[in-house]
Amino acid sequence: MPPDLRGAAQLARGDANGAVADLSQAIALDPKQAAYYRDRAKAHAAAGDAAAAAQDIDAALALAPDDAPLRIARATMRLDHGDRAGALEDANAAERLVPRGALDNIALVFVFEKLAPARSVALLDPMIALHPGDPGLGKLLNSRCWARGLANIELDKALADCDAAIRRDGPRPQSLDSRALVHLRQRDYAAAIADYDAALKLAPDLASSLYLRGWATRAAGDATRGSADMAAARKLNPGIVERFEPYGLGGERAVQSGATLDWPTKRPR
Description:
This protein is mainly α. It has a domain at 135-269: Serine Threonine Protein Phosphatase 5, Tetratricopeptide repeat (Alpha Horseshoe), CATH 1.25.40. 73% of the residues lie in helices and 0% in strands. The radius of gyration is 21 Å and the shape is globular. The chain starts with a helix and ends in a 12-residue tail after the last helix.
């Protein structure tokens, strides 16, 4: 069996170090194959070596600069390491390469969700329009609801998307979480808290619901309960505050000021 296929098989079995060794042999035999570097990057990542994975993605893109999945993979890596400018550069390049409306674009949707969620909405619009009968339509509608809620735009349309997703797939915790965010943006704190309660009943460890329920509860005037929720969310996900800060939903001082809910023009960078 060729070493690249052995490496793929090793990775599928969970032997990341063995995969790295086999794929390194494949690269030594043919160093101009971008796929070998891509696969070894996956193996390095599985082995916990993020630096080596990043180097291999860079090498793969040097050989195949117009490979959209590679661009998206590097954008994701850069986001994980706090390089928002680099991630945006790769995401912009990937957007120029992907076919409009393709369902495979969901990976790029998730990248833009963390960089500029309004761009996610623009990607999702043709995906939803072109695939009205897709079994995953409910998840796409939920993603668009969530992206609009993060961007604080078109909140009535966001609510309609979440309602449609819930009618289609039932009250999944992710859809309830998304709808709650829209209610929070609309300052309908009672509705937001009710949806967060329902989401957490189904998924008690959903850190975003716990954190933003705390946000809504504090904004509604119950600082003690709200702070307890936010603290519990930080225990589940220590980076939860940083996750929502770019969208104007930072820590408790932001809740106290109330300014972040009036944010239709600001965009995360």
